[in-house]
Q: What sequence folds into this?
């Protein structure tokens, strides 16, 4: 037992997602009620006793930033959230009382999204006599440390949430597998990005109601100035490379072709990881051992080095990912790979942008890495597991998923909503994002030992490959050797 606990403590050092991966993409999902105000919560047993049915229980749920409404009983928080949105004119100058009337299938402002999401969750839980209490443990490293301590002390909420750390928790045996009928329902009806990264040994251990995956974005104005068709997306790596080179030539030092952020941090791994997956490579095997120097990875890094030449010096591997994305926002680079929030942000700042699935390598197949995916899981030590699973079931209900669709910020994961003709017509770009969430979608892996150190070895090797004339195969061989010295 001591050995298991010590190995788990390592998870507190796990890398955390980049800035935009932590919820910068906006909304999550929930269905709205036709009334402005949710009904009062029914009384419930909050003693923490385990129960055989979800009736008459209180569950504790960790906040997800995209749909957070505060800390405390959910029934008490919603009206406060509504009034604060109306009152906060500086932050939400266009939110008025009329915005709290919502009809499914009609557009919904992103600012009021958390209110409607949690209103529907409250209603669905009340129908099962479940009271919901929200807690906030932060995000990133702070959240990982608190969850780690909670597991060790066997004092953990009924539902926890997180991103890159969650697969590791599943592998450590700390999470409750989804009931078989629930898991099958999810596999049959939900896009893989919402659950596939949380599948381990044939069981599902987590669900994200509004995960992100990366797409290719481009600035149509810059592409047109290079003599390219601004409405045509490159579909292969060769086409992408040719396009970024033409844009760079046309820019004459004022703007560049761009490509993908490749900094030695989680923000970089999450973005160029999609290229690794597409080309049949990977970061680790199913035992958590590094696979840095595979032939597919060498080919991918060689392609990235070619893309690097279509950037201002040092930008592609900059340690600050914000600098890279600022370059796109300022019209300094034309192409980039990023999560779905890039669409809304580009529209807001006046960029005429294109969005498409990521181009494929010569022998590659569609694939992706989840980004900005808040996975919800039930810990082994949760006191009210059945009620907790009822909460997660509500997250992929048609009501919740329709609300996500109506914001236009993220795409729904429920097939019956995302594949409607009405959705394809109203949100053609987000429908492309939905398609990208299908197939070979992965999360970043957890290495067997000293996760953050091993990741840094790979990140530094990629940076060295991009920024020097060293032999890429030799650089990755060295990183593999040093990583194996840690993990084995």
A:
């Amino acid at each position: 037992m001591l050995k298991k606990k010590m190995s788990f403590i390592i998870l507190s050092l796990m890398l955390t997602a980049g800035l935009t991966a932590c919820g910068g993409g906006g909304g999550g999902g929930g269905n709205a009620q036709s009334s402005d105000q949710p009904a009062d919560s029914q009384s419930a047993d909050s003693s923490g006793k385990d129960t055989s049915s979800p009736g008459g229980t209180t569950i504790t749920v960790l906040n997800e930033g995209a749909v957070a409404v505060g800390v405390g009983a959910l029934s008490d928080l919603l009206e406060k959230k509504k009034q604060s949105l109306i009152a906060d004119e500086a932050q939400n100058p266009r939110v008025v009382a009329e915005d709290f009337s919502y009809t499914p299938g009609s557009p919904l402002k992103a600012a009021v999204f958390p209110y409607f999401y949690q209103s529907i969750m409250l209603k669905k839980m009340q129908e099962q006599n479940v009271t919901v209490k929200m807690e906030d443990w932060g995000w990133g490293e702070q959240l990982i440390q608190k969850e780690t301590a909670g597991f060790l002390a066997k004092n953990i909420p009924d539902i926890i949430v997180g991103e890159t750390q969650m697969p590791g928790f599943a592998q450590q045996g700390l999470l409750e597998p989804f009931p078989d009928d629930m898991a099958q329902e999810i596999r049959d009806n939900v896009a893989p990005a919402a659950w596939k990264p949380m599948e381990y040994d044939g069981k599902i251990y987590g669900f994200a109601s509004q995960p992100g995956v990366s797409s290719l974005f481009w600035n149509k104005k810059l592409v047109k100035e290079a003599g390219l068709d601004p409405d045509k997306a490159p579909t292969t790596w060769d086409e992408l490379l040719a396009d970024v080179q033409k844009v760079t030539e046309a820019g004459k030092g004022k703007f560049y072709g761009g490509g993908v952020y490749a900094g030695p941090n989680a923000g970089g791994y999450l973005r160029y990881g999609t290229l690794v997956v597409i080309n049949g490579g990977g970061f680790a095997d199913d035992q958590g051992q590094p696979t840095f120097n595979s032939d597919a990875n060498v080919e991918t890094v060689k392609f990235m080095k070619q893309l690097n030449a279509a950037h201002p010096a040092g930008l592609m591997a900059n340690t600050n990912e914000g600098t890279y994305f600022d370059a796109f926002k300022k019209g300094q680079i034309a192409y980039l790979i990023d999560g779905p929030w890039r669409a809304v942000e580009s529209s807001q700042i006046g960029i005429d942008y294109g969005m498409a699935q990521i181009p494929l390598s010569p022998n590659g197949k569609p694939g992706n890495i989840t980004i900005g995916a808040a996975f919800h899981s039930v810990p082994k030590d949760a006191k009210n597991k059945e009620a907790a699973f009822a909460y997660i079931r509500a997250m992929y209900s048609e009501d919740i998923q329709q609300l996500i669709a109506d914001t236009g910020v993220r795409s729904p994961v429920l097939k019956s909503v995302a594949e409607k003709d009405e959705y394809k017509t109203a949100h053609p770009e987000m429908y492309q994002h939905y398609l990208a969430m299908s197939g070979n979608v992965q999360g970043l892996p957890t290495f067997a030992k000293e996760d953050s150190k091993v990741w840094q070895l790979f990140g530094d090797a990629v940076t060295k490959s991009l920024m020097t004339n060293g032999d890429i195969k030799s650089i990755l061989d060295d990183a593999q050797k040093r990583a194996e010295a840690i993990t084995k």
